[in-house]
């Protein structure tokens, strides 16, 4: 046996051994009428979406275990796959609602048969307590609610047991769709209050490990860092009963192991698979790969303006001209997604995401850097989330090589996914980092609200521009057909391109693979697996 074949055989044996811990806990046939097994590469760090530091992978608990007043409908895309429909708000816990003529009062009428998992009826008192909690705890949930002008407990009123009213300070186009995001979940307030303390009035410690919802699935077991096991709520009233009685959500850090589980048919679905695997597996007749462009989302390189060299926008622009965009798209994205470089400097429409005016031009990069106090370069760490290593690591290496050619020495720092949100987004202390953000509400101004306003969670660059802040504040609630809406958004885009606190790399796709004939997968803006729609063959 030659060396190449020996190494290939050894690798196969190693992979087989790495599969054993997963195969031991998986059912013999994943895709049955009873049990589904879904694997993903991230980690769930909390079962409470309102808790400070809860990461993105944990959001799917809120989606599958809790109800919201409303949800979004479903549409079929050109390739035949299913997606949520932003323009179609549908009932979930509320069977109907009324909005006043001036758009400032929304009254919701709850389903009278809806109950929590313990059998207690869902009432407007539970809705109010849950909404009060979401706007009071601070952090990401509170800012998300504020995007729809839901800011104070005084806005929320119990009319009667099954009627709940929201009063807005003024009409906002985002108010109703904001209620369909994962944040405004309805919690069993009696259970929560029973576990609240003087130091923890919102029961964050209890709900961190013990959901108390009325949603389609209950949490039967959570082994942190390993798996989450769901059991179907047979009394769910918020929609059609899910297709699977039991779902095992397994955390499998190794993408090679996730792929092997797919190819063996040992699982039902793999969520957020790397682009390389998506391209290679798409041709297999026994695996269905769904690749959905992520609306309002960009993978980007973020220079932090708290780091001295990046206070000068010419340094940021120099880096934007030095990024090897095409090589990153080929080697990190494998050609899946939408390019976001090489566009016109003139902003003549409000399309978002869009191509920036930057492309790879090392001469321009060097000339700009020579105008600054850093003509001899500097050293900076470039950080990325290990949970996103499939694209972030090759991108980081290519950026490191390219920036070296203009005198900037880059060291690469890999941060575990469980720590990323706190370090990058809450503390915002990474000088240069790779990030991705997709706005949940699909308008350009909503993206700028989250990613370009000082203090907001996804502004990990610490960008602060008074003109941008005023434009966003003036525009966020404005109807999209308002005569000032398009001019305001165009100016936001111009500022973003000139100041480059975020350097767009590409608009990504979300890739999900299904085996054994499982179907019903639906893409959602929050990029988490909604297991409620999955069905066995």
From TrEMBL:
Q: Which domain of life is it from?
A: Bacteria
Protein keywords:
Peptide transport, Protein transport, Signal, Transport
A Pfam family that this protein carries is SBP_bac_5
Lineage of origin: Bacteria, Pseudomonadati, Pseudomonadota, Gammaproteobacteria, Pseudomonadales
Regarding protein family, the annotation reads:
Belongs to the bacterial solute-binding protein 5 family.
Query: Know the name of this protein?
Result: Peptide/nickel transport system substrate-binding protein
Protein's GO biological process:
peptide transport; protein transport
- Which residues does UniProt assign to the signal peptide? 1-30
PROSITE patterns linked to this entry: TAT (PS51318)
Q: Which GO terms describe its molecular function?
A: peptide transmembrane transporter activity
Q: Which Gene3D superfamilies match?
A: Dipeptide-binding Protein, Domain 3 (3.10.105.10), Periplasmic binding protein-like II (3.40.190.10)
